[in-house]
Amino acid sequence: MGPHTLQLPVRPACYELVAIEEDGDWSPRLRLGPTLALSSDPGRKVLMRYFDSDLRPLGDLAHATNERLHGARDLKIIDRSTGFVTHLPSATTSAPVLSKVMRAGKRVARPESVFDTRERARKAVGSLFDRYLRLTSPRHYPIGTTPALATLKSDLIAGTG
Questions:
Q1: How far apart (Å, rounded) are the C-alpha atoms in residues 90 and 52?
Q2: pTM for the complete prediction?
Q3: Residue range 90-100, pLDDT digits in tens
Q4: Which of 7, 109, 146, 158 has its CA 20 to 30 Å from the CA of residue 28?
């Protein structure tokens, strides 16, 4: 490499084991990190994004797959990094953040072109409130778990789950 070659940091891809299927039942697993925020969230989950009436994103909430999805009204999110409760009182609707592309090792969705991916990302960033985009003192976009999922994580960390 020459002296003018740009060296970008490489971040290795990784995955976390959050559940194991045993005799048809799923058992939650946890990777314990040095802090609560750096520990994994246990169990199988559905990630939902909640929106206001103008379809602007207000926050993302991980639900355990075995719990009822929370409605958009007076939503409570347990913040992943702090453990504090955040309320999203103006949420009116929600939608899943992720969609299935593989099932049993087979593709079930058409691949998205890089152009479509870029356009989807531009629209998503463009729909955010300015308070999350400003360079000086940006607000923290709420990302968290349901109270039930936070309790499961606490119980597993304490060794009682």
A1: 6
A2: 0.80
A3: 888 999 998 88
A4: 109
